[in-house]
Design brief:
The chain is of the alpha+beta class. The protein contains 15 helices and 24 strands.
């Protein structure tokens, strides 16, 4: 994922509400995926399915800076994804596009990936999917031409060549160095006409996007009216789409419960609707509402979501995780011993109960920075913190017990905890964390900040002590997430460039381990490198992973194939209305 897209998703997750937990139990906080009906034979042909989005996306090019999660949601129905992730982030080749895809084995250089394309795969204008599409996308995203407005996703810069193989249905991609996440490349794949020149690549690709190679194609794009209409692709060669039309409707989170209740939507994510519910006017709520009023509004919104007639509220662990970031460049937290004392003071299971209990979710731990609980190889590495009690760590660092709050050189150990404003879950978690750290002699003052300034004015500038927010999780660990933990390097002015490492803590060893993991083609060897890197991140006390946050998605009971997908994504040709 591109750097600015990661930040955009992080901001979106702030709005959705985040916070956390931990234990040695590796079980996920909820199901890996929760869908309503997955058997195509039970789904009737026809009908228009109405799906809520935050806004009509300004682009369907997911590699443009303006792309959003809604851009990707719509694009998946239109474009080839060579590999699909299941709910556990396991990648499998999509037979609609690939007959096979093979990489040279570990140790063989250079790494060459051979794609055998489905010979029936064509763009909606009749042009076959071919090496020309791969070549154009590689050159657009490699970073060699600054005229392309993209942050250049990981992997493309390492491609040496793209050529046609033995026939027009074979594509060979040669990489300059091994790249473990090669399955993430070319998903989605755009037609060469869209990526072949900077002028074509940089245009919005929204209402002008008409060439698809998926089960659907764009039938209407009305930004002012808040609607993207997709119709069945008459050139689609795979299993036919069940729904006749998919309508993506712009419905703000605050209006979704009403829209569902009034039968104006069939599928709607409700995490933000519940977490950011606003107390009713005249209900005694302050302006802005106090924490108690916000918590009550959230509880009532959840009850309403669970009781909506004719709908089911699906729950699953999202492809995102919540963590507590510690600013290692500021004040007392510049001392690793103090950071370790903070981490050791957090009762993550108790925090989980406070955060997730009111949502009716199991409180389970996340003990890894690089792998989610649902992924193969997951292991809780929090024991790398050591077993020295927080009190002993603080004593050794010179922060002496002298009343409720420890002090040193006449200064109290007091930390500000940055949380997204308006999130009931974040407030519950912050209150629990404050209680836990206060018991250890560390005063914590939660500070609610508007989501639109959370990153730019605080995380990026270093204006915080502790910060509570979520990051998107990757199905291909060790590469895309490197930026979150990369050691800051001096810039032209001599000051460290932190990038996405808002904790400002890093090491050469962690960078090297993540680089080796990104280049390791043997899955078992890669997992071993990831565990070592994660243990070092724990020891550095860069951040404390708390939990894999949940998705709440309401789906009409007559709809199949939709719900909370986890790491997965919709198989749009299967989504539709049940028979009978």
């Amino acid at each position: 994922m591109r750097a600015n897209q990661v930040v955009a998703v992080a901001i979106a997750l702030l709005l959705a509400g985040t916070t956390a937990a931990c234990s040695d139990d590796p079980a996920p906080s909820t199901a890996a995926a929760d869908l309503g009906g997955t058997d195509r034979s039970t789904v009737r042909d026809g009908g228009t399915l109405r799906w809520a989005v935050d806004a009509v996306p300004t682009t369907l090019n997911v590699h443009q800076p303006e792309a959003t999660a809604d851009s990707a949601l719509v694009a998946r129905a239109l474009l080839p994804s060579l590999f699909r992730l299941d709910a556990h982030a396991r990648a499998t080749a999509d037979p609609d596009y690939l007959v096979s895809a093979e990489s040279t084995p570990p140790g063989q250089h250079p790494q060459t990936v051979t794609y055998r394309l489905n010979p029936r795969a064509v763009w909606s204008d009749g042009t076959p999917v071919s090496a020309a599409d791969f070549t154009a996308q590689w050159k657009a995203l490699s970073g060699t031409d600054p005229a392309y407005h993209s942050d250049h996703p990981a992997g493309y810069a390492g491609i040496e060549s793209v050529t046609q193989g033995a026939d027009p249905h074979e594509v060979k991609v040669v990489l300059t160095q091994p790249y473990a996440a090669w399955r993430a490349l070319f998903s989605p794949l755009y037609p060469a006409a869209v990526t072949g020149t900077p002028e074509a690549f940089n245009q919005p690709l929204a209402d002008t996007f008409r060439t698809s190679a998926g089960p659907f194609t764009v039938a209407g794009y009305d930004a002012a009216g808040g609607k993207v209409a997709l119709a069945r692709n008459p050139h689609w060669w795979g299993e036919p789409a069940k729904a006749e039309e998919l309508d993506f409707l712009a419905v703000p989170a605050a209006d979704r419960l009403d829209a569902l209740d009034q039968d104006r939507l069939d599928v709607a994510a409700l995490t933000a609707s519940v977490d950011h519910a606003v107390p009713a006017a005249g209900a005694g709520a302050a302006a802005p509402p106090d924490a108690a009023a916000a918590a009550e509004a959230s509880a009532q919104a959840l009850k309403r979501a669970e009781a909506l007639p004719g709908l089911t509220l699906h729950r699953a662990a999202a492809a995102a995780f919540t963590q507590l970031t510690l600013n290692s460049s500021r004040g007392a937290l510049a001392d690793p011993a103090v950071r370790r004392a903070v981490a050791r003071s957090v009762d993550r299971q108790k925090t989980a109960t406070a955060a997730l209990g009111p949502l009716g979710l199991k409180a389970a731990a996340l003990g890894n920075h690089l792998l989610m609980a649902d992924q193969d190889g997951y292991r809780d590495n929090s024991s790398a913190l050591g077993d020295t009690p927080a009190a002993d760590l603080l004593d050794q660092a010179g922060w002496k017990a002298n009343g409720a709050t420890r002090s040193k050189d006449g200064k109290e150990l007091s930390l500000a905890l940055l949380i997204p404003d308006g999130s009931a879950t974040a407030r519950r978690t912050a209150d629990e964390l404050a209680a836990e750290l206060t018991a250890a002699g560390i005063a914590v003052k939660p500070q609610a900040v508007a989501p639109d300034t959370f990153v730019t004015q605080h995380l990026a500038t270093g204006d915080f002590d502790l910060a509570l927010f979520s990051w998107p999780a990757t199905g291909y660990p060790g590469g895309e997430d490197r930026a979150l933990y990369a050691k800051p390097r001096p810039g032209p002015d001599g000051l460290p460039v932190v990038g996405l490492n808002y904790a400002r803590a890093g090491s050469e060893e962690i960078d090297q381990l993540l680089d080796r993991a990104a280049a390791e083609l043997d899955p078992a060897a890669q997992r071993d490198l990831l565990q070592k890197a994660d243990a070092r991140i724990w020891q550095l006390v860069h951040s404390v992973p708390l939990y894999q946050r949940p998705d709440l998605v309401a789906v009409r009971n007559t709809v199949a194939g939709a719900g909370a997908y986890g790491f997965g994504s919709p198989r749009y040709q299967d989504v539709g209305f049940l028979k009978g």
